[in-house]
Write a structure and sequence with these properties.
Layout (H helix, E strand, L loop, with lengths): L3 H12 L6 E6 L3 E6 L7 H5 L6 E4 L3 E4 L4 H13 L8 H4 L5 H9 L3 H27 L10 H8 L3 H15 L2 H12 L4 H10 L16 H22 L2 H64 L6 H11 L4 H5 L1 H16 L3 H16 L3 H11 L1 H20 L22 H25 L5
Antiparallel strand pairs: 1-2, 2-4, 3-4
Membrane topology: Multi-pass membrane protein
Keywords: Cell membrane, Kinase, Membrane, Phosphotransferase system, Sugar transport, Transferase, Transmembrane, Transmembrane helix, Transport
Subcellular location: Cell membrane
Length: 455
């Protein structure tokens, strides 16, 4: 018996011009991303009207928004119905003409689930530790030979092992980001993933100090460039190493050659560039204040709508890797608050029953985690709602910079982002979020009333 995802998959295939029109079908958190042979054969309007489809965005790929959790199931159903598609990239991508932002997205997007999970657990643990530190100070609790004062408090409350477990699981992603990036970059550049991971691991070793280098120097961008070089060296070695010795000599020589160039060339140069990048971003944020927060947050819905927000993933990671937190992400996710406020206003104002049904499915998802369903299902179709949502996000973004909120990780937005806020600024985050929702709601309702807009 067919499930709902198989039925939706069949309808998408039919409205896409049939099985022969598909090149590849992939997914991200909320969207099914399809590359077609001929996009003119695709009935975009009919696909948008399908039950379960929240919207369609055409960018570098044809993106069908179905919501978090559902995207992977719809993608799997379509691929199953199509049979095994060729996973190789297009000829243009094979020749290295791929869009730079898309390349970065392909490297970093696979890491986002782990970052969300570890960041969320880290956030919960930060709450436990912060409360324990306050208790230790107020009650003047002393440490022991093995435990710090706050660990003594956690032990007394029966939470020390839980806190330790959360800390280990939280650090599991961030302590080894360079290794994971090395692996995903290797897959992107079509070289051995484990060799790519090994090159990433090189940047984490304490013995680098003997060579006059610092662990982490060069950051994640340095790792990406190093793995790209590794892919080129690998191609050359494949041509000159005899087949009988390939399995031993090719990876060995590749790691020696690439590793040496990486350590003495790429790491020092990438370290300087990385320091400039981080310094420039921090200077901009620290010197533009609430105005910069307003401008950035107002722009983010447009970046999300076009998929360009994925280009910020390496910047977030670089900031977290080098400073322990990113001040950009809390500004970015105020777009979620603006979308929620505008979406609620549309739900209140509309008399269209289908719009109401879409709103009931979109808004809880946006409140809890991601804004795309509301963006494509409600806000963009309304026209003016996208502008009022962006302005509402801008007001919240200005407030984020006023409170100087940073996050220790990045991933989902809405209420899921609360534990990600650094320095215990959970209440400040909620205040900013509420202000964004209210601002967007008021702006949307006011504009609709003044201009007599029907939804």
């Amino acid at each position: 018996m067919k499930n709902d995802y198989d039925i939706l998959g069949e309808k998408i295939i039919t409205l896409s011009g049939g099985k022969s029109n598909f090149k590849s079908v992939k997914n991200c958190m909320t969207r099914v991303r399809i590359t077609y042979v001929d996009e003119e054969k695709v009935n975009k309007e009919k696909i948008e009207q399908l039950d379960g489809v929240l919207g369609v965005n055409v960018a570098d790929t044809f993106q069908i928004i179905v919501g978090p959790g559902k995207s992977v199931k719809v993608q799997e159903s379509i691929n199953s119905l199509l049979g095994k598609l060729d996973d190789n990239e297009s000829e243009e991508e094979e020749k290295g003409k791929k869009n730079f932002l898309k390349m970065l997205s392909n490297i970093f997007v696979p890491l986002i689930p782990a970052i969300i999970a570890s960041g969320f657990l880290q956030g919960i643990n930060n709450i436990l530790i912060s409360n324990a530190k306050v208790t230790a100070m107020t009650q003047q609790i002393a440490g022991t030979d093995k435990l710090t004062p706050f660990q003594v408090v956690l032990q007394q409350d029966g939470l020390l092992k839980i806190s330790t477990l959360l800390g280990i699981l939280g650090d599991a992603t961030f302590a080894f980001l360079a290794i994971y990036v090395g692996m995903t970059a290797a897959k992107q550049f079509k070289t051995d993933p484990i060799l790519g991971a090994a090159l990433g691991a090189v940047t984490t070793l304490p013995s680098l100090s003997i060579l006059g280098l610092t662990p982490g120097q060069g950051g994640l961008f340095g790792v990406i460039f190093g793995v790209w070089l590794m892919s080129k060296v690998g191609i050359i070695l494949k041509k000159i190493v005899p087949d009988v010795l390939d399995v031993v000599l090719t990876p060995t020589f590749n790691l020696i050659i690439t590793g040496t160039i990486y350590l003495f060339g790429i790491m020092p140069i990438a370290g300087i560039l990385s320091d400039w990048l981080i310094g420039g971003i921090m200077y901009l944020l620290e010197n533009t204040g609430i105005f910069g927060g307003f401008v950035l947050a107002t722009a983010f819905p447009s970046l999300i709508a076009t998929g360009l927000h994925h280009g910020l993933s390496p910047i977030h990671m670089e900031l977290i890797n080098s400073t322990g937190g990113t001040p950009i992400f809390p500004v970015q996710i105020m777009s979620n608050a603006g979308l929620l406020g505008a979406g609620i206003a549309i739900l209140v104002l509309t008399k269209n029953q289908k719009t109401k049904e879409i709103a009931k499915g979109c808004l809880p998802t946006t409140f809890l985690a991601v804004g795309e369903p509301t963006m494509y299902g409600l806000v963009i179709p309304s026209g003016f709602g996208f502008i009022t949502a962006s302005l509402g996000a801008g007001v919240a973004g200005a407030l984020v910079r006023f409170f100087d909120i940073k996050s220790s990780a990045f991933g989902a937005a809405g209420m899921s982002a609360i534990p990600l806020m650094a320095d215990g600024k959970y209440i400040q985050y909620l205040i900013c979020y509420a202000v964004g929702v209210i601002s967007a709601f008021i702006l949307t309702v006011t504009y609709a009333k003044v201009r007599n807009k029907e939804l």
